Amino acid sequence: MANLHVVRFPSPAEFVEAAKGSDDGFMNLAFGVLMDSMNELQIRVRSITEESRTLLAVNNGDTLVLALLKVAGDVDWIIGCPRDRELVSADAETAISLLVSFLPSVIDPKSFDTIWGPEPLVNAFIDTWVSAMAARGLRIEALPTRFRVKRTYATLATLPPSPPHLPSKYIIELANPDDVEPLAHLLVDFSRAAPIVTSIEAARAKMDMHVRLGETWVCREGSEIAGYVGVGRTTFRTVAIRNVYVAPGHRRKGIAEAMTVALMRYYLGARPLGLEGAPDGRPVKGVKEEICIAVVEDFVERLYEKCGFLLGEHDQDPVSEQKGWFASIIRGVRVLEE
């Protein structure tokens, strides 16, 4: 790739226009975070402004091959690469060096802390950043991996042929405003497996917003919420399942699988859905080609494989024959005392 160069986008609309041809499951984290930040409700709730986003890319000519972005208020920088343009080592080294050289022109280098993305890209970025900052006289320590997940996706072609059976006493439907308080407590419990535990105040604010956006689904037994699924990071072609959580008293009853497959079928346009309470017609933001998920714990991989996600060591998309998952990590740096 002889024509690699950095592009800084002054507005999210310009980034979206340039990157929409790179919209796939491997870019959902980066592209989806940006598109979430363009939603009118999220802009109001999160106080997002035009200055809240730093949007960089490395292009080969006019084609995006690597993206680096941050939305103010989010913890991490995000780096991403389209699935069909994975960089070989020499090109990746060049692209990352270009980003590392450019980034100090738009941020204070001391403010850079953590980055999330494909494991090889994150490790290469951290190593290059530490070396480049040392050459500038800034002593920085690379920190070990803080969090690791498998990012994968499913399509209509990988879905199980029919929805799993769920006892009739359970109903899966969109959450409503009365559900925000119990959902907030479930979100706090869910976050205990994440790098940062969510406070109850933050959980209430998040759940209120996502319920209003129609992005949270619940499984009920009578008046009790047995579990929930949260979606988001909706792009032109993809949507992500953010959270799947079943309350301790309702586990080992098939609820997680039933909720997950029902939501997959809804967003991928499959019928029957296997749930009651779904809105009439198509999803508001359209049927998607890929539905994405991040799997944290090894012991739940079997569950998500049953749902149709490509998590096997050699799993490939049956249509594109491209690989089905990648390791994604969060790493950071620490500025040392001078």
Automatic annotation (TrEMBL):
- Limits of the N-acetyltransferase domain: 170-332
Q: Name one GO molecular function term.
A: acyltransferase activity, transferring groups other than amino-acyl groups
UniProt xrefs under Pfam families = Acetyltransf_7
Supply the InterPro entries for this chain.
Acyl_CoA_acyltransferase, GNAT_dom
Q: Which superkingdom does the taxonomy of this entry point to?
A: Eukaryota
Gene3D superfamilies reported in the protein's UniProt record? 3.40.630.30
| Name of the protein this chain belongs to | N-acetyltransferase domain-containing protein
Organism equals Phanerochaete carnosa (strain HHB-10118-sp)
